[in-house]
Amino acid sequence: MTPHDLLDGLRSRRPAALARAISLVENGAAGFEAILEALHGDLGRARRIGITGPPGAGKSTLIERLTQAYRQAGLTVGVLAVDPSSPFTGGALLGDRIRMERQSLDPGVFIRSMASRGSLGGMATTTGEVADVMDAFGFDRIVIETVGVGQSELDIIRVADTTVVVLVPESGDGIQVMKAGLMEIADVLVVNKSDRPGSDRLRQELEVALGVRTGNAYRHIPAHHGADVSGQTPRRQEAKDGGSGGAGAEGRGGAQAVAHAPPWEPPVVGTVAAKGTGTDELVEALDRHFGAQEGSGELERHRHLRLEQRTREVVDRAVRRWTWSAEGPRPTLDAALGDVAAGRESPYGAARRVVRALTRGGA
Amino acid sequence: MTPHDLLDGLRSRRPAALARAISLVENGAAGFEAILEALHGDLGRARRIGITGPPGAGKSTLIERLTQAYRQAGLTVGVLAVDPSSPFTGGALLGDRIRMERQSLDPGVFIRSMASRGSLGGMATTTGEVADVMDAFGFDRIVIETVGVGQSELDIIRVADTTVVVLVPESGDGIQVMKAGLMEIADVLVVNKSDRPGSDRLRQELEVALGVRTGNAYRHIPAHHGADVSGQTPRRQEAKDGGSGGAGAEGRGGAQAVAHAPPWEPPVVGTVAAKGTGTDELVEALDRHFGAQEGSGELERHRHLRLEQRTREVVDRAVRRWTWSAEGPRPTLDAALGDVAAGRESPYGAARRVVRALTRGGA
User: Fold this and answer.
1) Which pTM does this prediction carry?
2) For residue A57, what is the DSSP state?
3) B293 or A223, higher pLDDT
4) Which of B88, B151, B240, B360 to mutate to test the interface with A (most CBs of A within 10 A)?
5) Looking at this predicted complex, what is its ipTM?
6) Cβ <8 Å between B351 and A318
């Protein structure tokens, strides 16, 4: 299939073309950026919903229910599940996936899993790019699931219009969640398995925590975060940006943008996904959030920040590729690598030489 | 403390200077690369031992035992524990850490934890840089612990001379381990809690698997992996490098280097770390591995590859910093970002313009 055929296939809404385009983007295969570029004008129609929470919180079942509800309302749904796939626990999520993929017999539903293999920094960009393909294909809702390890939960705000944090009574107390910065990223909190002991207590803790919460989630999106090798979290990143002008501090604009709209108060929705309880309330909360953000201009601002961030990541990726290509600063690079290998130079001195060559235009 | 004082402190082996230098490096604070550059000539004395395995395998207790054994042999030990610190399970490892840090009352032992916050791509570089500081400080052994999420286990071969994979009977069957690529990275396999049911079976499975294993771990180190945003695993990376010349394929040399030394056969060591059983056998296996690698020239080759990889990562980091700095391609960048924001350009078109400007030397 040529890129042209692939684009034709996407525009004629052929599922095979969608699957192929997503694989291309996921693997960074030849021509993937040309596809994304061609689709760029078709973006923005879908609502992107990010769902995160600890393993075992029932996210997949909840997404099944959500998908059913959207289908009943005549909406099409793309689901993108990002698995951290630990070498030690890799197979654990497979059952969920297979179960979920039964829904995909419905042509109005498309389900895709991606193995993140723990590389969450670059994964956020790839996840956003795959969501773009789904958006351009024409899904009304895109649901992005990340399973709880480290940065991935905080990264989800970089790809979603609305972020849902799913907890269960067993997943521990609200204090842990607050400390982890999840209260700041949640637009909607779900207490799933809310028929179990401890769920009332968890809801109360979350509501108390929300009462003392100020501002809203969007101000926590750093202007330029994902492509940073140091891989700081948004909050550490902000601290760093405001810090002593260290290595990571240059060249980030836009962090000053602060929301002036009335802050959204995240509701706490109780669900029992296994029984379908609470799904309507969740759908309604998601609609309310999207409507509020749209009305206040926050949606546009958030999407604008996301686009700027994406651009920076794509630029970084392209510059890195260029650096090591035949068009890049080869003579300086090769000499520097040789000097490091021979013990005449440190990696840091080598990097300085390369940057000096770039500044002189000596590429 | 000025960088000069800090270097003086490190060279006089003052623990406060060590702690400060590590913080500087971990946070990427102003001057961290100058410190690393100054220390570059002092590296290579320490043996670096990487220890990985699933949560609950008893890695920390095993490291305590290993540390005791090294201390009894008159060797100093630096321990670097890299925690993935999930927002959901963040506190779980604290108990181990506090217990381990009791050993640090001994001035011949230095224990440090780093929160990776899941960003494993850049984390491997930072982990290597912190290990460098410990190496320059003069520790005889540096033990690096990573706890099992995704890429981190596979990344550990990028920082360690010897990689130990710790399993327990409960952690599931050997097939899972083989599928996850852990057999390829393990120089020594440990079955901890080997007094529990199922441990004989696990050992047998591992030994059978080792029998069919070919080659050795080092050929799995990709030449340029860590700084790649796409965050592929070593094996996927290799597949990609050999692929159709896609986005990630340019500019990586050295992947062709293949070991010619007789392959090391990883032993399976049974331990009961809680009781101290098997520690001597483990120490002996580690010594044998290091000796074999040193004798065959593999150690030097491995360290050489590691240095080349580090250089590439440091160059990428510096080039990225430069791109967004005042010395970088500002006019082109600003115009491109503006055009994307105004809807006149896609992120991919913007990136192409920046790269074109670099190639023309129009920085």
Assistant:
1) 0.80
2) S
3) B293
4) B88
5) 0.82
6) yes
